[in-house]
Design goal:
23% strand; globular; 336 residues; Alpha-Beta Plaits; five-stranded mixed β-sheet; 2 domains; alpha+beta; binds alpha-D-galactopyranose
Length: 336
């Protein structure tokens, strides 16, 4: 039997720029996926999870079926293609990462599957495993995601920030300054990545970059965006401004400037809400209240459309701040 444990992640800033040539700042979490794998001598894979009641039993070549086990099966098929494993596998998944919250439970599951299937033994480094996991998501699952989540969970260290240049995957691991708490709150609003909205936003970004004549949209200039059709102009404005905010956030983090980092988070949320159109009014209200009640900054995190938001709070204030926010939004749940 082989095992692997892989953390989830929360993105602190740098949203929708991991396929646009930007720098992103995810932080790996203490919540993780734990996976056990063992060859079963059959021509099918059996997958069970503590989070779901069914045990799935699929032929080893069956394509993605829109089922939670797809992330494992995609990883197993990759592992078989690479010759790391042969034949069917029995897999048991235990996870403390909430599903559908924007905390990369899917990337963590694929990376854990690849590791348990022997990617490390085959000499693949964590960045290589991240790229393989992205392939599984892009090709097997058909979700055209960037590289942020896979790198964050494969390379990141829980409780540290990964400042990742998504253009070449170079990175630095930065500690969270003393006295800073990043609280992650689930809004209670469900979200789904693969429902076409992610793909549509990505397509709009590619079109905008093409019209501006730049290889990556982050390379565009804000003053050129008004020449684009209105929707593309807004997407470009988000991506170009978010790319700049993200770099400023690296500086704020290095200087341990909580107010600056918080302001950048607030500007990021406004841009995601107004230009990227990936927030929802009920979540905007929670984000506004989080700041009104004492957070330095708050923003929707991950692809958005619901799920979690992340707040920067002074550590000594965090628990009283959360009590005030919870009193105003009883449906919200603090997950980190
Ligand atoms: C999802 C994708 C990432 C990234 C974010 C938005 O989490 O998987 O690649 O594009 O959305 O920043």
């Amino acid at each position: 039997m082989t095992c692997a444990t892989v953390p989830g992640r929360v993105n602190l800033i740098g949203e929708w720029i991991d396929f646009n040539g930007g720098t992103v700042l995810p932080m790996a979490l203490s919540q993780s996926v734990e996976l056990e794998m063992c060859a079963n001598g059959q021509t099918h894979d059996r997958v069970q999870s503590q989070q779901f009641s069914d045990i799935t039993d699929f032929g080893i070549d069956v394509p993605a079926a829109g089922h939670w086990s797809d992330y494992v099966r995609g990883g197993l098929q990759y592992g078989r293609r690479m010759g790391w494993i042969t034949g069917g596998q029995d897999v048991i998944l235990k996870s403390t990462i909430p599903v559908g919250a924007g905390l990369s439970s899917s990337a963590a599951t694929i990376v854990a599957t690849l590791r348990a299937a022997g990617a490390e033994l085959a000499g693949i480094d964590p960045a290589g495993i991240a790229r393989a996991a992205q392939d599984v998501e892009n090709i097997f699952m058909g979700v055209p995601c960037g590289i942020m989540d896979q790198m964050a969970v494969s390379v990141g260290r829980p409780g540290n920030v990964l400042a990742l240049d998504t253009r070449d995957c170079s990175y630095q691991i930065m500690p969270v300054p003393a006295g800073w708490t990043f609280a992650v709150i689930h809004s209670g609003i469900a979200r789904a990545l693969s429902d076409g909205r992610y793909r549509a936003r990505r397509q709009e970004c590619l079109e905008a970059a093409g019209s501006l004549g730049v290889p990556y949209l982050c390379d565009g200039k804000l003053e050129d965006t008004p020449s684009l059709p209105p929707v593309l102009a807004r997407r470009a404005r988000h991506v170009i401004s978010e790319g700049a905010r993200s770099l400023q956030a690296v500086t704020a983090l290095a200087a341990a400037s909580r107010p600056s980092f918080g302001m950048l988070m607030n500007a990021s949320h406004a841009s995601l809400r107004d230009d990227m159109d990936v927030s929802v009014p009920a979540l905007d209200a929670m984000v506004d209240d989080a700041v009104e009640l004492g957070a330095d900054g708050a923003r929707i995190t991950g692809a958005g459309f619901g799920g979690c938001f992340v707040c920067l709070v002074e550590t000594g204030q965090a628990s009283a701040w959360w009590s005030r926010l919870k009193a105003r939004h009883p449906g919200a749940v603090r997950v980190v």
